[in-house]
Write a structure and sequence with these properties.
about 220 residues; alpha/beta; Rossmann fold; 11 helices; phosphoprotein
């Protein structure tokens, strides 16, 4: 059973998402919160698999709440998905930096919304290739070389796999490009995540651009 926490300051939005989730046999909404502070209390009490958190809220916004969740080792298994009214608003990249596994636009169709919750529960990033490219083009302008020391620990194959993931390729596509099996591609990505201390694939993409593994121009 996938346990979900809904966090949004608009009751109508919460009730709409809850109505969809309550129809699914494998998903349970364990709690609802109206702001970031309430979210932090409930996420510690309920330990949901997925926390769907609105970016803009009173008291404490979703990015602050996400940052607090990501920093707490006891909440390492909580996968945060940000909710936004706009597909490419100015907060999206900040949310990924804070530790979110991805984001959803609130006008998403029901089938895609339910699929996204299941994807997040598995620990996969909710970053379609097209969205990844738009994020990079809009928000990442210069590499920060923030993880230079950690990068030296990557093998050449791990480095190559990370670069491909940063361009939005799936494990299967990385495997085709590198002429390896999908299992090996996944192993390269997982080992790179461990070495770079990336919480999930979304943060791995952020780190790849910030550290200079790839740059927008290299696309």
């Amino acid at each position: 059973m996938i346990r979900v926490l809904l966090v949004d300051d608009q009751p109508l939005i919460r009730s709409g998402f809850r109505a969809l989730l309550d129809l699914e046999d494998d998903i349970e909404v364990v709690a609802e919160a109206a702001d970031g502070e309430e979210c932090l209390v409930l996420v510690k009490e309920q330990l949901p698999d997925v926390a769907l958190i609105d970016i803009q809220m009173p008291v404490m916004d979703g990015i602050q709440a996400t940052r607090r969740i990501a920093a707490d080792p006891a909440l390492a298994d909580v996968h945060v998905v940000m909710l936004t009214n706009y597909g490419m608003d100015e907060y999206v990249f900040d949310a990924l930096r804070a530790g979110a596994a991805g984001f959803l636009v609130k006008d998403i169709v029901p089938e895609d919304f339910l699929h996204a919750v299941r994807v997040a529960a598995r620990g996969d990033a909710l970053l379609a290739p097209s969205i990844t490219r738009k994020l990079i083009q809009r928000y990442v302008t210069q590499p920060l070389n923030a993880t230079g020391a950690a990068l030296k620990g990557l093998t050449s194959r791990e480095n190559e796999a990370v670069a491909l993931a940063a361009r939005g390729l799936s494990n299967d596509e990385i495997a085709d490009h590198m002429v390896i099996s999908p299992t090996t591609a996944k192993t390269h990505i997982n080992r790179a995540m461990t070495k770079l201390r990336a919480r999930d694939r979304a943060q791995l993409v952020v780190l790849a651009y910030e550290s200079g593994i790839v740059t927008p121009r290299s696309r």
